[in-house]
Structures are given as structure tokens and as C-alpha cells.
């Protein structure tokens, strides 16, 4: 399934940003606020690339102390964006894909026009090719 940017709607169109359910708005604010921090965004990117990393590996990649990295990990874990797995002395972290995908899926479904397989956000239109 591919997504392509298509032409903006015609001049004078009344299509605007849809209103979001309250719980989704709160989840999005929380996620975007967390990911607006460079260190937390980089942690998420490293975890997305490697699937799972332990704290020491993240400290080395981020060039930050263990307490600093652990603080960021705790915030991401509390928000449900990552999960921990203990193996011996090491805590391994990975992205909690179900939760993140659920939030993003709900966001894009709120823009979806099921009759046209398009997502409209103000003057931007994304079209899904279902082939």
C-alpha cells in the first residue's frame, strides 16, 4: 500500500483539519511533546533501527551518562512508547509498536475519506494506492 501526494483541493474548498477525539488529542500532545526532545527522538530512531538496545549501548551512541539516558527512557516507557526486557544485568529497550501504531493509525483514520481512499488535511491530500 503506497501513499502519494496529490493535487490540493480546488479553490474555495471547505475541507479543514478535522476535530479529533479528546483522548487522541491528549495522546498526540504527549507523544509529540516527548519526541520534541532531541535525545528522546534519537533514542526512538536508534530503537527503530536496531529493534532492541540495552542502556549502555544507548549511552555510547548518545554520548550521555547512564542516569541521563535512564531518565529519558523512563519518560518514554511511562508514555507507553517503549518497553523494557530484563536479561541478566542488562535492561533491553524496544519500541512498543502496537501503542505507537495505534495512536498514529487513529490520527490518520480521523482524516480518511473512505469513499476516495484519501486523507485530507487542509490543502494537503494524500491518496492511498491499495494495489
Automatic annotation (TrEMBL):
One of its GO terms (molecular function) is DNA binding. Gene3D superfamilies: Winged helix-like DNA-binding domain superfamily/Winged helix DNA-binding domain. Keywords: DNA-binding, Transcription, Transcription regulation. It comes from the Bacteria. InterPro entries: ArsR-like_HTH (IPR011991), HTH_ArsR_DNA-bd_dom (IPR001845), HTH_MetalResp_TranReg (IPR051081), WH-like_DNA-bd_sf (IPR036388), WH_DNA-bd_sf (IPR036390). Residues 20-115 form the HTH arsR-type domain. The keyword DNA-binding applies. SUPFAM superfamilies: Winged helix' DNA-binding domain. This is HTH-type transcriptional regulator KmtR. It comes from Gimesia aquarii. The gene is kmtR.
Amino acid at each position: 500500500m503506497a501513499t502519494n501526494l496529490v493535487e490540493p483541493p480546488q479553490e474555495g474548498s471547505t475541507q479543514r483539519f478535522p476535530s479529533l477525539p479528546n483522548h487522541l488529542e491528549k495522546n498526540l500532545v504527549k507523544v509529540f511533546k516527548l519526541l520534541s526532545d532531541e535525545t528522546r527522538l534519537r533514542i526512538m530512531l536508534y530503537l527503530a533501527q536496531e529493534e532492541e538496545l540495552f542502556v549502555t549501548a544507548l549511552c555510547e551512541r548518545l554520548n550521555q551518562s547512564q542516569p541521563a539516558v535512564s531518565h529519558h527512557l523512563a519518560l518514554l516507557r511511562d508514555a507507553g512508547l517503549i518497553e523494557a526486557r530484563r536479561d541478566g544485568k542488562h535492561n533491553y529497550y524496544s519500541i512498543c509498536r502496537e501503542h505507537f501504531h495505534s495512536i498514529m493509525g487513529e490520527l490518520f483514520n480521523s482524516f480518511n475519506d473512505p469513499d476516495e481512499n484519501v486523507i485530507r488535511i487542509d490543502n494537503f491530500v494524500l491518496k492511498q494506492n491499495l494495489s
